[in-house]
Amino acid sequence: MKLSLTKVVNGCRLGKIKNLGKTGDHTMDIPGCLLYTKTGSAPHLTHHTLHNIHGVPAMAQLTLSSLAEHHEVLTEYKEGVGKFIGMPESLLYCSLHDPVSPCPAGYVTNKSVSVWSVAGRVEMTVSKFMAIQKALQPDWFQCLSDGEVSCKEATSIKRVRKSVDRSLLFLDNCLRLQEESEVLQKSVIIGVIEGGDVMEERLRLISGVSRPDEVLECIERGVDLFESFFPYQVTERGCALTFSFDYQPNPEETLLQQNGTQEEIKCMDQIKKIETTGCNQEITSFEINLKEKKYQEDFNPLVRGCSCYCCKNHTRAYIHHLLVTNELLAGVLLMMHNFEHYFGFFHYIREALKSDKLAQLKELIHRQAS
Amino acid sequence: MAGAATQASLESAPRIMRLVAECSRSRARAGELWLPHGTVATPVFMPVGTQATMKGITTEQLDALGCRICLGNTYHLGLRPGPELIQKANGLHGFMNWPHNLLTDSGGFQMVSLVSLSEVTEEGVRFRSPYDGNETLLSPEKSVQIQNALGSDIIMQLDDVVSSTVTGPRVEEAMYRSIRWLDRCIAAHQRPDKQNLFAIIQGGLDADLRATCLEEMTKRDVPGFAIGGLSGVCVALGCDMFDCVFPTRTARFGSALVPTGNLQLRKKVFEKDFGPIDPECTCPTCQKHSRAFLHALLHSDNTAALHHLTVHNIAYQLQLMSAVRTSIVEKRFPDFVRDFMGAMYGDPTLCPTWATDALASVGITLG
After folding, report:
1. Chain A neighbours among B 308-337 (CB < 8 Å)?
2. Do the chains contact at B293 and A86, CB–CB below 8 Å?
3. SS3 (DSSP) at B257
4. Confidence (pLDDT) at A274
5. Which of A97, B1, B61, B365 could, after both became Cys, cross-link B57 (CB 3.0–4.6 A)?
6. HEC profile for chain A?
């Protein structure tokens, strides 16, 4: 794997990751994001509907928390998780945790880290962890680490030091086991750095950051790769991403968009709290809430000019109906739109960096952030 | 279920059915329905998309499976989002973006089966909405009015529905009332050129009542007839169209349809089963996924699991009907039935008596 930077502007890195995958001929653009999955499948989507989406990232994120309980099955299957989930062509990154579901603190010891699956807690020592990775055979996997310091507010220096020590020890042990296994050597271990030195040539992936404004902030601090769970969270609360990222629209579009944005901002007097499974999140100003009565007779697409399957085939009124009647198709269509919109955003980030227009994009996004 | 009027049975009604082949032994027939949104090969299975959606699959997926007609429920759609909105959205076709055919029921059946506070009089069916508590009357005129707004290619008369377990004078009352309601529906129908109104033969399990009803209804100018409450073997008995929620509903409980019945994929026995649901099935689910993966996905909270099964189950039903049709065209329908029942039940003696009897009545013996 080779990181090839085209440009570095004010700390923002633009480039490609080359020679990826088992065959070494895949490439990924950075800054970029990974396709968020749950139990190896994009949420709500089958192969058909996933492939309706334009701009799906070359690499998908799997979570160990959703796959650890299938260790035995995958070991017997032998051919790796990519083939098992029906994504043999995709690059795969296996993270420890699911960024959407917070895991309770206090379950990391010197010998093990726990992940939380639907079935409950799965405790993993280094050897169990590496055995699972051997069965999964992902292209990359996040090393076993103590990541609890990042979720706590008041963290003592002692706790931070403990976290770094533990993580380094886990990393050493994982690397040692990798040396002993031909299968494991085909995967790249992604080390998690807690407050250490970041070397220029290393790829930087951040976990837990997915909101558009936060993404831009991290890019300015030199981050390369992000998770795409934000569009999923938006979907789960019955919302559609509508934020604009076209920093250079034609004048007519600007006028229409401005009018649209103003209207949305006017209606966003209160931020509503929506309770959904695992997503106790507030609606952001990057999205519209399709459950609102005003969309009942709105025969416009979710976003004018959007080329996604949902916007090309359906209306806000229809999505509203599906949500009100609790129909499964609501999640499918919203996920398709939200993913496409989000991947489009990343495309525009790269374009902005290419043409030195990141400041305009940043200004546009911040105008829309609440 | 319905049978469409053909030249043999009716002189004056619009002929939407073209017969392609008939089984010489039973009354099974293969044909083509010529409907406003395209041709439909029969016998045909119609998936039920109750609330303007086929559960979790897109209209593109449904089209790709070869579906050319599906069903919408007037009762549900009449309440949410309501006929006025659907009319503004260019009818149900426009609202859900379905380019092929749609059939809607009258709304009567579900009202009686879903709503406990419903009352049938000569006027119509009076009921209380479960959503806002308002009292509404669904009359033959109202039912047709809603269906006219929905714009479906086939619409159903409002009939006086009686459970097949009911006996006595109520059955006869319902039968005669259904005839009167048919006349009211015909009179109220505003779009006979765009929408085909079907009559519904009543009479419970009484052969004489059924015959009377049929005689009367065939005198009316309708392009097709429906029969409620039966299933499966009815192709042998001469039916052309079947609707059922079974494949989509059963998918939502993790059940996959196969020739031998169904697989409860959530069960542990499928945990390490790396083959597809059905090796003979050509659906996208069977082409790409194993029972083991679907088992794992069904135990997660990712709804994709259900969609994979819905796709397969609908594909299975459509493929089955297509195979039935081919067997009729190729003049080997009786053998097809025997093979099918054999795969499903194994021993002929395990086949349900009603099915064996019904098939025997049209000259098909099992075992």
Report:
1. 308, 311
2. yes
3. strand
4. 31
5. B61
6. CEEEEEEEECCEEEEEEEEECCCCCEEEEECEEEEECECCECCCCCHHHHCCCCCCCCEEEEEHHHHHHHHHHHHHHCCCHHHHCCCCCCEEEEECCCCCCCCCCCCCCCCEEEEEECCEEEEEEHHHHHHHHHHHCCCEEECCCCCHHHCCCCCCHHHHHHHHHHHHHHHHHHHHHHHCCCCHHHCEEECCCCCCCCCCCCCCECCCCCCHHHHHHHHHCCCCEEECCHHHHHHHCCEEECCCCCCCCCHHHHHHHHHHHHHHHHHCCCCCECCECCECCECCCCEEECCCHHHCCCCCCCCCCCCCHHHHHCCHHHHHHHHHCCCCHHHHHHHHHHHHHHHHHHHHHHHHHHCCCHHHHHHHHHHHCC
Q: Given this model, what pLDDT does residue A189 score? A: 81
For residue A32, report the phi and psi dihedrals to the nearest 5 degrees.
-150, 180
Within 106-145 of A, beta carbons closer than 8 Å to B belong to 118-119
Amino acid A102 reads P
Mark yes or no for CB contact B296/A70 under 8 Å.
yes
A73, A76, A299: residue with CB nearest B296 = A73
Chain B closest CA to A158's CA: distance in Å?
38
From B304, which residue of chain A is nearest by alpha-carbon distance?
Answer: A44
Residue of A nearest to B62 (CA): A48
Question: Does B131 lie at the interface with A, CB-CB under 8 angstroms?
Answer: no
CA distance B45 to B23: 19
Neighbouring C-alpha atoms within 13 Å toward the C-beta of A296: 10
Residues of chain A with pLDDT under 50: 194-198, 258-280
- Chain B contacts of A332, Cβ < 8 Å? 56-58, 303, 307
CB contact under 8 A, A47 and B85: no
CA B83 → CA A327, B76, B89, B318, distances in Å?
A: 19, 10, 10, 30
- Assigned token pair, A309: 């399957």
C-beta separation of B324 from B314 below 8 A: no
Q: What are phi and psi of A288, to 5 degrees?
A: -120, 150
ipTM: 0.90
- Mark yes or no for CB contact B288/A73 under 8 Å: no
CA distance B247 to B317: 8
Position B243 scores a pLDDT of: 62
Q: Which listed residue (B159, B160, B243, B278) is catalytic?
A: B243
Ranges A322-326, B123-127, B226-230, B251-255, most confident: A322-326
| B288 in contact with A, Cβ within 8 Å | yes
- Do B95 and A328 count as a contact with CB atoms less than 8 A apart? no
Supply the pLDDT for residue A277: 36
Partner-chain contact B301 A38, CB within 8 Å? yes
Q: Is B273 a catalytic residue?
A: no
> Quick check: A316 and A301 in contact, CB under 8 A?
yes
Beta A26-30 vs A12-20: how paired, if at all? antiparallel
Q: How far apart are CA B173 and CA B204, in angstroms?
A: 11
Query: Are A203 and A31 a contacting pair, CB within 8 Å?
Result: no
Interchain contact B85–A (C-beta under 8 A): yes
Task: Check pLDDT > 70 for residue B187.
Answer: yes
Mutate to test the interface with A, among B54, B76, B307 (most CBs of A within 10 A): B307
- Judged by a CB distance cut-off of 8 A, whether residue A75 touches chain B is no
Q: Which of B54, B58, B85, B95 to mutate to test the interface with A (most CBs of A within 10 A)?
A: B58
pLDDT tens per residue, range B118-169: 788 999 998 877 777 888 899 999 999 999 999 999 999 999 887 777 788 9
